[in-house]
Amino acid sequence: MIRQSQIPASLDTTSHFEWPRAKLWRLHALTGPCRVLGAATISSIFVAMLMTGCVTKPVPAPPGVKQEALSFTPPTGMAGIYIVRPYHFIGHVVPYKISLDSGDFGLLPTESCLYGTVPPGDHELVTEAQGMMPGAAHFTTVSGRNYFFQADAGMIGMKTEPLSESAGEELVKKFTLCATAGVPHGSPSVAAVSSDTSAVCRVIAIIPQDDPVIAVKGSQPIEAPPITIGAGASTPAGVGVDLAGQVVSDAVFNAFEESLHRSITRNRERRAKQMETPLDGLELGDSFRSKFQSGLTGAINSSPWLHAGQVEVSRRDDPVMIAELTRHPVVQVKILYELSFDASVLIVRAQLIYFRLGRTKGDMPRYYTYFSDPIGPERNAEAVAKWVASDQALLRQRMDEGLGEVVAMLEADFLAPKPGEPSGAPVKVSCYDALNLRHAEWQGNIVRGGPRILFQRDSGGCFSLVPERSHPGSL
Predict the structure, then answer these.
(1) pLDDT single digits (tens) 30-65
(2) Last residue in a domain, options 126, 150, 177
(3) Which domain holds residue 380?
């Protein structure tokens, strides 16, 4: 018999961050030269793939959510988001990981779907699978409408493609509706959460790192090179393959692709590991943890609604137990810091989850991201060398700035008297997205002005960045 004290409260809240054993947060990516494989190798890969994997059964959505989803009528002022996954022979035993607006949406097994609601505005839906390049769809929603997407595997990576309403509704009716990972279906706003002042809150900051890492991102644009098979027959990505005068079946060719992607992923990870060598052993974590603890404690002490003692700091991501939530609410803040894929920018990311008194699920995951100024024209190994020069003076200074900006975002979005209610007209901000190594234009509200702004996207994520430009915008 399992006692209540042994049951984690966060079972149904999928963490936005993952903590691999050796190095932190490896998001698999694709780059590097293609390998030339013969028919025997392809066949061997195909057989091996048929024999591996484990079946993951979908977790059904609660009846109320299922009823809302199948009504195809989103709540007032919201838009409905559906993503489906039809059957595909290769990889069908492995669920896809789906993200919505930089937060976890849920796991998507074969012949299943996910449903959530979002406010009007710009949004991003991403499909990920092990060893594959993520596939993203960027779209703009209008209240009262539904938007349907299909997740699938493509030639070079995953695909997230729009569907018509009629096609989408038919698949949703036919497939299993899975539970989502903390995506709201009318869940309480930050302001509603802030009314929970009945007990002293326990606040835990989870910072497992000692050294920065190099982000291995899958969303960096990569040109798909031609794939060469057998005795010199070459075909561009997206075109069928004829091997020794015979058409290769989709299953065999997809097996070849997946093996190729795994090889490319390993190449990128080896590259990142080599670049990280000067960062190993810096032991910056203790100083970072101490300063963040001090800054967050001061911010909480100034909050008019959240009452807490000293912020606890831990390296371990231990689950919150149901028994604890019968006594007091809990706030978890998880922190990661890394250099961008080309090492030009320091990124500090935080996830906040608030567990209300007496609840068994985190009410509201919130995400905060700091992009430092670029280090200069240097990239890759040259940039790493500049970060660690002069006893890591520049790296330490930017890390201090990053943790200060994360605390400022927490204050503005969560700890303020009326958090989560940005004022002023929406604006469009042009900026450099260091996570994806590209220039982007985001719509939202400026929470704090200045050369470095705090910017809250319509999708909910909050960023500290230096904009390239901003201008009034509307959808």
Answers:
(1) 233 333 334 444 444 343 343 334 444 557 887 778
(2) 177
(3) 190-214+284-472
